[in-house]
Amino acid sequence: MSQVSAGTTPHSTQFTHENIAFIGAGNMTSAIIRGMVKAGYPANMLMATNPSQEKLDVLANDLGIMTATDNAAALDFAETIVLAVKPQILADMCAALPESKQDKSYISIAAGVSVARIQEMLDAPVQVVRTMPNTPSAIGMGMTGLYAQNNTSTDLRICAEYCLKQVGETLWVTHEDDINTVIAAAGSSPAYLFMFAEAMQTKTQELGLTEQDAKLLVAQALAGAGKMLLENPDTDFATLRSNVTSKGGTTAAAIASFHTANLADIIADAMQAAVDRAREMQANI
Ligand SMILES: NC(=O)C1=CN([C@@H]2O[C@H](COP(=O)(O)OP(=O)(O)OC[C@H]3O[C@@H](n4cnc5c(N)ncnc54)[C@H](O)[C@@H]3O)[C@@H](O)[C@H]2O)C=CC1
Ligand SMILES: O=C(O)[C@@H]1CCC=N1
What we know:
This protein is of the alpha/beta class. The protein has helices spanning 27-38, 53-63, 71-77, 87-95, 115-122, 154-165, 178-187, 189-206, 211-231, 237-244, 250-260, 263-284, and strands at residues 3-5, 14-16, 20-23, 46-49, 66-68, 80-83, 105-108, 128-132, 142-148, 168-172. The strands form two sheets. An eight-stranded mixed β-sheet has the order 5-4-3-6-7-8-9-10, with helices on both faces. It has a two-stranded antiparallel ribbon with strand order 1-2. The longest helix is centred in the C-terminal third of the chain and has 22 residues, at 263-284. Bound molecules: 1,4-dihydronicotinamide adenine dinucleotide and (2S)-3,4-dihydro-2H-pyrrole-2-carboxylic acid.
């Protein structure tokens, strides 16, 4: 067991590496595990389980983590289990786990599944930290919201926060419903920006540039803008925008077009749709 610093967590400055098993080896598990191993987490202390061998082979070959096609192996391997299957199959997956599931601690990344519902699925008042990460975790640029009930152990909080901090920033929220806001603002939002990028790429190509050049222009501009947002924490986003916008110039023309199309309302509606869907899932899963 190696002792490592957990950085500026609100709960502790120390975390002892422990075995952690991820059930479900899809996009998010891959993103988080890749980030963790890249950040130095011992690969042999991480396990992923999945029904299909293919995804496991990729993770094992690339990273050297432990893998299994049987979820029971996850419970044999670790005291802390990350629930990383699709919300709709979580109940069946939990029901099929052996009895030792009731003695484990859980970190859930599932959207729209409450702590109380997870406890119900596992048929025991298990400890759960509910989290909402995002795919940029794969490159260490993740953003994860975390929520735990008051009676959740400090150890589990530290563990969850430590893992997610290895792959980006973390933010604890006070109320469970705030996790749904995290979904709208950070869990789902990379997709909004990719959609913005797709539309910009398409128009750039229509204007005559090659696909490769269009992708470079758009990706570098978005990455640069994102970095400026992060590196100027005391500057309003609106000020950064206005710094690009010369009076009577080209950006002003583009921004006016966005205003005419009510872009802010379109974005607000989309984020509300994400929150509404999360709440709906929470009521039905
Ligand atoms: N994709 C995203 O950006 C984010 C997803 N999430 C949440 O993460 C969870 C996983 O999402 P993704 O990784 O995108 O999905 P995914 O579909 O890529 O991964 C799920 C994996 O679970 C496996 N699986 C299916 N049945 C299983 C079983 N019985 N036992 C073990 N594994 C099983 C599937 O084969 C698949 O590899 C979901 O609950 C989602 O709400 C959370 C934040 C962001
Ligand atoms: O689309 C979803 O439901 C998940 C949660 C956040 C990102 N992907």
